[in-house]
Amino acid sequence: xxxxxxxxxxxxxxxxxxxxxxxxxxxxxxxxxxxxxxxxxxxxxxxxxxxxxxxxxxxxxxxxxxxxxxxxxxxxxxxxxxxxxxxxxxxxxxxxxxxxxxxxxxxxxxxxxxxxxxxxxxxxxxxxxxxxxxxxxxxxxxxxxxxxxxxxxxxxxxxxxxxxxxxxxxxxxxxxxxxxxxxxxxxxxxxxxxxxxxxxxxxxxxxxxxxxxxxxxxxxxxxxxxxxxxxxxxxxxxxxxxxxxxxxxxxxxxxxxxxxxxxxxxxxxxxxxxxxxxxxxxxxxxxxxxxxxxxxxxxxxxxxxxxxxxxxxxxxxxxxxxxxxxxxxxxxxxxxxxxxxxxxxxxxxxxxxxxxxxxxxxxxxxxxxxxxxxxxxxxxxxxxxxxxxxxxxxxxxxxxxxxxxxxxxxxxxxxxxxxxxxxxxxxxxxxxxxxxxxxxxxxxxxxxxxxxxxxxxxxxxxxxxxxxxxxxxxxxxxxxxxxxxxxxxx
Length: 490
Known about the structure:
- The chain is built from 18 helices and 17 strands.
- By secondary structure, the chain is of the alpha/beta class.
- The strands form four sheets. A seven-stranded parallel beta sheet has the order 11-12-13-14-15-16-17, with helices on one face. A five-stranded mixed beta sheet has the order 2-4-7-6-5, with helices on both faces.
- Helix 12 links the parallel strand 13 (312-320) and strand 14 (339-343).
- Helix 6 crosses helix 8, helix 13 (352-364) packs parallel to helix 14 and helix 15 (416-425) crosses helix 16.
């Protein structure tokens, strides 16, 4: 469990004072009950997020500790992240690292020496525990790290146990008991512990329990054990399956890099195509493009695509969904885009019914192809929009609109639950980065992790397709069929 540090404690004191002030707002002219409720809602979101860290922050923290541990040398065979980080949770409470000792280094004197080395990591803020085979500490960013030192024979059992989830582990232990075994962090053994049955690898343990190996991302006790027993586990989408990224920004709106720079960086990552999706005119804070600027930008995109960049550059835009669900570009301009990503950037506090109708209206628009960051959440900062997700996804399935799995670490939107709902309804999904500079393009791995948590396979994600097949999988624009017929006659 993470501890709440002094900084968090002070914040909680401030939050308490803010709540008291919020209750007084309803009597202040110009504010009223709505202002009070908005502040209280933000306070509740903060309380839930205290002690949590974004996936990318946790990953970077883990990598820093691991790099330091590996400097010890030949006594360390491997260091493996476990816990919610390995399962790909959107936010992480603490870090569990499993250090496997090299052969010949399992004596206590070696363990003590390695532990002493670990505790010299310069970013350690406070040492919490130093036992025979475990060290715990907090880093300067507040995240708690537990490092367990273990021998190779127990690695699989420990990795399974400390990866979790708790509910998955409880189900597995019950299954083991029913089969005459006991399962813990050290081994799978006979009930009385007389004989060790497995423990070196997770695969070995699952096999002895007559289960297919369950990928860490779906170990949430949501049907994965039954699927593993019946050989029905999904063949989860992989990073290498992704062939294109359909949501990124350039200096034309609020991005930091040019079209050519984004294209080259994406090519180096192995992408076959990208869509530049700069903001439309309503997002003035993001330097959104009015019709005249967008028309010029479209010409630049087409010129870039024709200039032998080694990657297909598709003409796109992130078009704003207005309060009434309409789009903020004319049909004439929308028809010129190859990829239309539609997103909400304003009026985010509409009530459930109004926001649902807004999303439905946007999906019904014949030019809408992809809904960008569909719930608008910002992890640890802003709650998701409140709308009827089932009704919206049903509409997306009906109209052939794809839902975005936004890879940006602040968003990771849609959630795993929503992505699974997409799969169940046959809703197409695209995994995009929403990049604003070239390093952001690497965030695609976070989106893939979320898609895996949602049980998605490559067939559910349309940007696993080559570019022509991808474009064919998008919702066709009005008149597209007639255009194709006319082209065929010519």
